[in-house]
Write a structure and sequence with these properties.
alpha/beta, 4-stranded mixed beta sheet, single chain
Length: about 280
Amino acid sequence: MKWTNDSGGNVEDRRGTGSGGGKLVGGGLGTLIVAAIIFFLGGDPSALISSGMQQQSAQTEQRDLTSEEQQIYKFVDMLAKENIETWTAEFQKMGMQYREPKVVIFENGTQSGCGPAASSMGPFYCPADETIYMDMSFFGELQRKFGAKVTEFSIAYVLAHEVGHHVQTVLGTSGKVDQLRRSGKYSEAKMNRVSVATELQADFYAGVWAKKTDQRENFLEPGDIQSAMEAAAAVGDDNIQKRSQGYVNQEGFTHGSSAQRQEWFMKGYNTGDIRQGDTFNALLK
């Protein structure tokens, strides 16, 4: 993908500050692997916190960021700004005002509005403070453990997916899902399907973002969409279940299969129309 000249994406870089804020302990390596599976692409960190893991202060020595880390900041900042520009324009078309999310880059651990955050949790969106949290080292784990080839655009896809959850928050979708969850109206199996619909809609919004941003900036290059498809396939529930437990249990899906994640991203990309992303009616009939 081509880098644009945009910056000012409301990104805070907490790496190298010496106040990383701690790490989650108490669960062992197995728990951390499970956490990565649960939280990658939109999980709720409060679930892990309530499972008995505790935060332990882990002050890190202050240091200067390397030139590579500084480039990573510039890249994430550029992507965040492109998301702001695209979604501001899309909301204006709907006669609505878009609120900019914040993006925090951290290492090892930090505090979020949803509680302690750790790199093992993967990138996630916290609706309480409307912030996306990313430890970039997780993308290495994504490649090693889940078989995804990490490229610049696969990172762009992940960030766009998390921004998609913010779009859901601004539109009120997340609040409705939370109310439904708290009501106890649905069984666990049906709430899992609601969760899948929520995640697939975020994938759809990521596709819309890619389409609209490319129309404005002409930033896509050959192979970019394919790299997003490979990342989506890698984090499909069926792929993760096969790798972690050796078999697939569809009733346990919370994010959607590899095929579903690819399908809804491509629907967003092909249509570029936010109105076509009603995953809830499509999956909960």
